[in-house]
Structures are given as C-alpha cells and as structure tokens.
C-alpha cells in the first residue's frame, strides 16, 4: 500500500505539486510569522541585556521606563546607589522619537540615553563605541553605517557604530546615545531620567519610587505590542488551520475520486485499515514535502520581510512533526470515506 | 482436496441482494459450481448474474439459505477470515478496474501484496503471470496506455496471480472488440485446471462453445430472478 500511495501521488503529480505548494506557502508564512514574533521578543531581550542591570527603579505609579512618559530627576540614581545591596546605579532615559537621516529620510526609533562606561555596555558589530557625546550607536535595522549623520531634536549626531538585534516595540530600531546629549536634545538639558538601572539586589526602593524586577521590566517593554504579538500568533495558527483545510480537501477529493478503486481493493481482500493507511500516508508525504518548502520559504522571506524575522531553530525542527500531525489528521478526516466503501460496488461500478 | 467435478461452491435455497434494496435479487437459488470446469452464468441484465458473483466473491452476505465455499459456510465468515477468503478469489471485472496509477506488473502484484506475499516474490509472480498471458512486454506500462484487450489480459493476470481456486469474471468481453473478446474467451477457458473453478457471467454466446457448464438465470422461475435452467454442454 506504500507503493500505491506514492504511485497515486506520482500519477496525479500536478495535483500533488499544487497541494505541496499551497500547504508549503501556508506553512512557510506561518513559520515566518513565528519568526517575526520571535524576533520581536529577541530584540527586546537584547535591548534589556544591552542596558543591563538586575532591577530598575522607576517613578512611583510608573509601570516601567519603556511604556510611559514618567520621569524623575536623574540624580535619584545617587540615592539609589546608597541603598543596601546596590552595587551600582545609573540613570537611563528612554523615549520614542524620530531621527532624520542626512538623505532626508525620517526613521522611527527608540532612543536610549545612558551613561558611558557604566552598567550599560553596548557591543557594536561594526564601528566603535561613542567617544564623544554627539556620537551614537544605532541598530542595523536603521540601515545606517558608521560615519553617517542623523538629527534628533535638532541636534546633529554621528553614528560611531552599529549594534545588531537591539530593538523593541515590534522590531523598531534602538539608538543608544549619551544621556546628557539626549537630555539636551529633548528636555532642554533638564536632568531627567525614566529609570535608574540597578546592579545588585536592593532590599527596598526609595520613597516616591517603585522597584521593578526584570520580569516586570520585560512585561513593560513587551506590553505595547502584546496585542500585535497575539494577533500575529493567531494569524499563524489560522494559517496552520488553513493548511489542514487544504490538505484535507485534497485528500477528500482524492478519496471520493478513488471510491471505485477503493472498492476494487477491498474486493481483492484489502482491509479498510490498509486503505486508511494509504490515505494517511499520501497526506503525510504531501505535508512532509510542504514542510521542506515552508522552511526554504521562511529562510528566503526573512531578509525581504519589512520586519526582522528570526525563526528559532526549534521551530524549524518542529515543522516536520507539525507536518506529520497535519498529514495524519487530514488523512484521518477522510478515512471514513474508505470505511464507507462497499466492496460489492466493484462489480456494479462502471455500469 | 477437491477433485474435478466436485462442488467448490454450493448454494442451497440462497437468497442474496443489496442492503439498499428491500427485495433480494435472487431467492431460493440452488447451484453447484464444480472445480475443473467453467460455469457460465447466462441471463438478461438484472437477472442476478453480478449479484451471484458478488456473493461468490464474499462481497455480499447471504440473506437466507446456505452458501458454502469448499465446505466453509460463507455466512459465518467475519473479519480476517472474510478478507482471507476474498484474497483466495480471482476476479475479472467488467470494466477491468485496473488501478490507473500502477503499472501492469504493479496491478498484478497488488492482490499478492494484500495476501501477504513479500515484495520480491510478488514482483516475480506478477511478471510470471504477465508473461503467461503474453504481456511481459507491457509490464511497465500503465493501464491508460494500453488497449482494451491488453487491459483485459492484465486484469486476468491480476486475477490468476495469487493462484486462486475460484476465478470470477463479470462480462469479461463487454468492452472488447471481436478479436480481443475471442482472445479473452480462450484465455478464461484456459484457466481451468483440476483444482480451479471458473465462473463467468456473460451475455456473450462465444463462451458457450467452450467446454462449459451453462446456467441460465431469468425472471420466470423462483421469484425476481431464479434459475430457469442449467445444463452441461
């Protein structure tokens, strides 16, 4: 029956190709969307890793430095640094703004002002760390290279280096710059901070502030895109359901078309289970081939997608298992066709 | 061991029909199918020839009366026993019913594989059966690329591949030209051997010239379709 299943796919090769292409594209887009979500999470994780710290101190009532406008005096960091259990404390200023490239293009960016040579330690993949207040690091998603100039709040800045994968808010680029220069650019030099990044394990915060651990900070940085992330995941799941629908429909059409053939096989002594196995195997072969196409598509789509795509290796590894599950499910959905076939029809069929 | 002339299939007061129909197609039917002979079922359309073949093949269950095959009560066959019985019967269908996606040898090997033959043995036997029917040159062709006569030879090869003791043929010349039909008549007649019973349902009078036992089915005796006559030629 294995040979029969494979021959059937070979005989209807156009249908098989269409099925593989349709299911492959659906699985490929689903995989790519999973990669988009993974890239968003990886970007925010890397941003937090770059900023560093074990806790954040934020103004009381603020949910965190990324998802709100609350600020407090940057000098708060000195008071925090004196708290028990604190090894180091530094102010950061985070905001969402636009930067203008020298060619006139305007980019959305998440700007993080930090204190050089402190807790925050960016690692440029090209260029160097800023050596002057007007030098900045930009994420590679800005498309900028070392030496490029950008304008933020009327202040002209030079890109000294490029970091990679440092993004948040659905893959939006991060610009890392000198805290004082950022305060000058957006707050007319007022010494304000969104948070104090703390290295160590403080037992408590300061009055008028809140002490947030990294899980709370992670919630804060991901909250604005929570619905977008859920929507992307839902669309990915719907694409999987669509893939199941496509392969089930093709399996069903094949089973209906082959009703006479199945009655003949039963008349020759084939069992319902053997026929069911053949239907399931056909579906599994199609979905297995589609999973290979999906992986190729995901790799090919990543670089041309408007958002960063980082398909986790585990998703690639899970794809064959998912394809197997889809194939088995689609095959089982049409097994009833095989069970309903009456072998006596083999004599009557064709009249 | 069944000897020539002994009944391979025995029907007594047999009623048989389709589940979807209230009345049986055949009722109160008596017949012995002897081994070593060709039994011809003659009759008009609707007289019950195909129904009888289906019952002999184990595809329809007797609704009343007795039907035995080589001494086994067919009404009692269930599950794997029924499948095993079906695998012991060679069937030549009216419209050939070859699997279009399989080559000739793969079609012939199919019932062998269903019967549990190893792939290599099934392949060898399939080529052997095709060769015996003069089809070795077409063994890798698909049915769609064959003439009606060639398809019928492959269908006969498929039927005899597992060396069945009962071969059933349903209107085997219906879709063939005169030359191919004559060819098929002689091929089926040639299948008869001491341990094998051949039953052919047909309208084709050419079969009557073979050394056959003829059974006429008609509506005038025994209800909707009963035996109107049976004779040895």
Structure, described:
The complex is a heterodimer of chains A (351) and B (233). Chain A has 351 residues and is of the alpha+beta class. Chain A has helices at residues 2-11, 13-51, 76-81, 179-187, 214-222, 226-257, 259-267, 272-304, 313-340, 345-348, and strands at 55-59, 72-73, 86-101, 106-114, 126-127, 135-139, 149-152, 155-163, 167-168, 172-178, 192-193, 195-200, 209-213. The radius of gyration of chain A is 29 Å and the shape is elongated. With 233 residues, chain B is α/β, with parallel strands linked by helices. Chain B has helices at 49-56, 79-87, 104-114, 119-132, 148-160, 178-189, and strands at 7-16, 26-34, 38-43, 64-69, 72-73, 89-92, 166-170, 197-202, 212-218, 226-232. Chain B is globular, with a radius of gyration of 17 Å. Chain A binds chain B through residues 1, 3-4, 7-8, 10-12, 260-261, 264-271, 274, 342-344, 346-351, and chain B through 18, 50, 53-54, 57, 59-60, 83-84, 86-87, 91, 93-95, 97, 99-102, 106, 110-111, 113-115, 142, 158, 170.
């Amino acid at each position: 029956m294995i040979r029969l299943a494979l021959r059937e796919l070979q005989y209807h090769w156009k249908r098989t190709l269409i099925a593989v292409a349709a299911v492959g594209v659906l699985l490929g887009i689903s995989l790519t969307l999973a990669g988009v979500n993974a890239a968003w999470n990886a970007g925010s994780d890397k941003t937090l890793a770059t900023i560093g710290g074990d806790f954040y101190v934020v103004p009381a009532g603020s949910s965190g430095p990324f998802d709100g406008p609350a600020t407090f005096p940057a000098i708060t960091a000195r008071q925090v640094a004196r708290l028990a259990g604190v090894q180091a404390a530094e102010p950061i200023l985070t905001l969402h703004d636009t930067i203008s490239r020298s060619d006139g293009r305007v980019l959305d960016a998440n700007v993080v002002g930090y204190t050089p040579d402190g807790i925050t330690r960016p690692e440029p993949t090209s260029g160097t760390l800023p050596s002057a207040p007007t030098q900045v690091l930009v994420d590679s998603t800005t498309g900028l290279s070392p030496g490029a100039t950008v304008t933020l709040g009327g202040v002209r800045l030079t890109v000294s280096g490029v970091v990679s994968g440092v993004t948040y808010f659905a893959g939006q680029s991060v610009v890392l710059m000198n805290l004082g220069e950022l305060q000058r650019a957006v707050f007319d030099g007022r010494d304000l901070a969104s948070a104090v990044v703390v290295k160590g394990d403080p037992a408590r915060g300061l009055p008028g502030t809140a002490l947030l651990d990294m899980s709370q900070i992670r919630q804060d940085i991901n909250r604005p895109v929570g619905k977008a992330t859920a929507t992307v995941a839902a669309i990915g799941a719907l694409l999987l359901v669509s893939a199941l629908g496509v392969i089930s429909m093709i399996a069903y059409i094949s089973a209906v078309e082959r009703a006479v053939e199945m009655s003949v096989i039963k008349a020759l002594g084939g069992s319902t289970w053997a026929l069911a196995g053949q239907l399931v195997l056909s579906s599994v072969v199609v979905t297995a081939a589609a999973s290979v196409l999906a992986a190729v598509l995901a790799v090919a789509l990543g670089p041309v997608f408007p958002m960063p795509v980082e398909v986790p290796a585990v998703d690639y590894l899970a794809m064959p298992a998912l394809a197997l599950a889809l194939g088995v499910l689609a095959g089982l959905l049409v097994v009833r066709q095989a069970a309903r076939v009456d072998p006596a029809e083999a004599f009557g069929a064709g009249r | 061991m069944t000897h020539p002339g002994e009944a391979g299939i025995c029907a007594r007061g047999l009623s048989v029909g389709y589940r979807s129909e209230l009345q049986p197609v055949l009722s109160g039917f008596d017949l012995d199918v002897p081994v070593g002979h060709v039994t011809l079922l003659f009759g008009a359309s609707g007289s019950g020839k195909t129904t009888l073949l289906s019952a002999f093949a184990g595809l329809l269950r007797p609704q009343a009366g007795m039907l035995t095959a080589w001494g086994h009560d067919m009404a009692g066959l269930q599950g794997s026993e029924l499948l095993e019985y079906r695998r012991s019967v060679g069937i030549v269908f009216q419209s050939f019913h070859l699997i279009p996606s399989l080559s000739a040898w793969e079609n012939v090997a199919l019932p062998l594989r269903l019967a549990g033959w190893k792939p290599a043995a099934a392949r060898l036997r399939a080529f052997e059966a095709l060769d015996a029917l003069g089809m070795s040159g077409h063994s890798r062709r698909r049915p769609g690329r064959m003439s009606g006569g060639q398809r019928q030879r492959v269908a006969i090869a498929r039927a005899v591949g597992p060396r069945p003791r009962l071969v059933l043929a349903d209107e085997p010349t219906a879709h063939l030209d005169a030359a191919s039909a004559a060819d098929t008549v002689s091929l089926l007649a040639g299948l008869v051997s001491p341990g094998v019973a051949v039953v052919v349902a047909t309208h084709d009078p050419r079969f009557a010239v073979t050394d056959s036992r003829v059974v006429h089915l008609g509506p005038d005796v025994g209800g909707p379709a009963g035996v109107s006559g049976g004779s040895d030629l």
